[in-house]
């Protein structure tokens, strides 16, 4: 069972989320109408779901001091941008997300992955919110997207119709630019930087 805290200012919204998560392997161990509710002091959750139609920009350092994985259901892009700069495990879905999307996001977050949808991620390589890393070339962005799909170098080479040596070169260049040592880290940084969406 994945332990979840449910936070939403609207009772109707909390009720709706409870209904969506019913009959699943998700255990709601607490719920409240605000982040600083005393009811949540001793709760130990794997994922915190925060849902609001007009979500404020969250102060990641103070609102989530324990480092929980955060799933925000919102239509507010600045909140998603604040999450992407937090460096922690986070997810963002629109309020109209389906049950299947919600369950998949919770499970992914519990495993330490970052989750979002294309509408919340800036996928334009020339215009990113995260300027921490050097820009990737169009080919490197393409290769990074294939890494996110779990492809090995040989598969990437076949898909792009390039040599396996060239595919390895692109992967190595991505690792260097993103300052990572493995594919999982590269994909995580790719999501943070807005180059790919999962």
Adjacency order of strands in the biggest sheet? 2-1-3-4-5
**Number of helices, counting only DSSP H or I runs of 4 residues or more:** 8
For the report, how would you describe the main beta sheet? 5 strands, parallel
Number of strands: 5
Beta fraction of the residues?
5-15%
- What's the architecture of the largest domain in CATH terms? 3-Layer(aba) Sandwich
What structural class results from the helix and strand content? alpha/beta
The radius of gyration is 18 Å
Please state the oligomeric state of the protein chains shown: single chain
Shape: elongated
The CATH topology of the largest domain turns out to be Rossmann fold
Helix content: 40-55%
Distance between the termini: 23 Å
Domain module tally: 2
Q: Quick check: average pLDDT?
A: 80
What string, H for helix and E for strand, traces the elements in order? Answer: EHEEHEHEHHHHH
Short description:
The protein is of the alpha/beta class and 198 residues long. It is built from 8 helices and 5 strands; from the N terminus they run βαββαβαβααααα.
Structural overview:
The chain is of the alpha/beta class. The chain has two domains: 2-120, Rossmann fold (3-Layer(aba) Sandwich), CATH 3.40.50; 138-193, Winged helix-like DNA-binding domain superfamily/Winged helix DNA-binding domain (Arc Repressor Mutant, subunit A), CATH 1.10.10. It has eight helices and five strands; from the N terminus they run E-H-E-E-H-E-H-E-H-H-H-H-H. It has a five-stranded parallel β-sheet with strand order 2-1-3-4-5, sandwiched between helices. It is elongated. It starts with a strand and ends in a 5-residue tail after the last helix.
């Amino acid at each position: 069972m994945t332990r979840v805290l449910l936070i939403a200012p609207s009772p109707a919204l909390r009720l709706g989320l409870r209904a969506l998560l019913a009959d699943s392997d998700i255990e709601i161990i607490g719920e409240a109408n605000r982040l600083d509710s005393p009811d949540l002091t001793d709760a130990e959750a794997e994922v915190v779901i925060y849902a609001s139609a007009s979500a404020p920009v969250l102060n990641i350092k103070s609102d989530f001091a324990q480092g929980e994985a955060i799933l925000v259901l919102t239509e507010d892009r600045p909140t998603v941008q604040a999450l992407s700069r937090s460096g922690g495990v986070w997810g963002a879905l629109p309020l109209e997300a389906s049950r299947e999307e919600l369950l998949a996001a919770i499970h992914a977050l519990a495993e330490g992955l970052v989750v979002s949808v294309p509408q919340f991620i800036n996928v334009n390589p020339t215009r990113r919110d995260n300027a921490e890393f050097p820009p990737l070339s169009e080919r490197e962005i393409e290769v990074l997207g294939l890494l996110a799909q779990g492809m090995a170098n040989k598969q990437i080479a076949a898909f792009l119709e390039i040599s396996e040596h060239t595919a390895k070169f692109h992967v190595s260049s991505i690792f260097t630019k993103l300052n990572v040592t493995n594919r999982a880290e590269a994909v995580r940084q790719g999501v943070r930087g807005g180059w790919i969406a999962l």
